[in-house]
Amino acid sequence: YLAYLNGEFAPLDQLKISVLDRGFLFGDGVYEMIPVYSRVVFRLDEHLSRLEQNLAAIGIPNPHSREAWRELVLSLVAQQTFDDQSIYLQVSRGPAFPRNHAFPAEVSPTVFIFADQLEAPATVLTEQGVSAVTATDVRWLRCNIKAISLLANVLAKQQAADAGVAETILLRDGLLIEGAASNIFIVKTGIIYAPAPSELMLTGITYDLLIELAGQYGLPLQLGDVTEAMLRQADEVWLTSSSKEILAIVLLDGQPVGNGQVGPIYKKMLGFYQEFKRTVMRR
Ligand code: PLP
């Protein structure tokens, strides 16, 4: 597992950062998780564009041009021994002393990238679906920033782990927001619904792709408020993320979603998604 830290490539377990790094002390940084299929980086420009927006949003000077980021990621991908990879890329504000919440006057961001092996979701999951629970969204009001400070998401995901299910769906003021580490779509009488992008949720790269695919293949899709009632009465519920792709949620808080089986629109969308992946890999 070759990794990258501030200009240096080395085995993952040999890289070290300062204990004064603001990523470590404050969770002061942003990240991306980028899937790689057969050594083809999936939606790299979309991920880099979100990274650039996130850096700007929290005032970390972007240490690299788009082209330099691209080359860095491609170089790391090329140096791994395995073909399907999940690239974790993190930029923190860097080390500073004395410890002080406000931005230090002079600081140099810490760039850390590593590759892990990527396992495609098991066939049993895409064919039979997964279970989820709901919880109140107790996060802050800037969830559109892909921040490394993930404590609320960690606790939400642990609720799912404790319940023996795949995901926790977060609700705020009676509205569906997103999963602890995914976006959520629902289907009711043939129409796909999802929350519109806002500061309360992360706009997923997979979420954007599903919206694109729905448009391309003429599946009706509406973005806007999705109430808890709509979620509970949905025919289908899906979660999406770069690592999970699209999974149907067939059991929610112990109740079957629709008829409790993976739905027809899910199967269509998954087919379109897999075809899109194949097209990208052929290029
Ligand atoms: N929302 C949250 C909170 C996430 O952590 C993630 C990804 O892990 C997503 C949504 C999905 O984003 P993407 O499709 O870019 O992986």
TrEMBL record:
Pfam families: Aminotran_4. This is D-amino acid aminotransferase. One of its GO terms (molecular function) is transaminase activity. Belongs to the class-IV pyridoxal-phosphate-dependent aminotransferase family. Gene3D superfamilies: 3.30.470.10, D-amino Acid Aminotransferase, subunit A, domain 2 (3.20.10.10). PANTHER family: AMINO-ACID AMINOTRANSFERASE, D-ALANINE AMINOTRANSFERASE. Keywords: Aminotransferase, Transferase. It comes from the Bacteria.
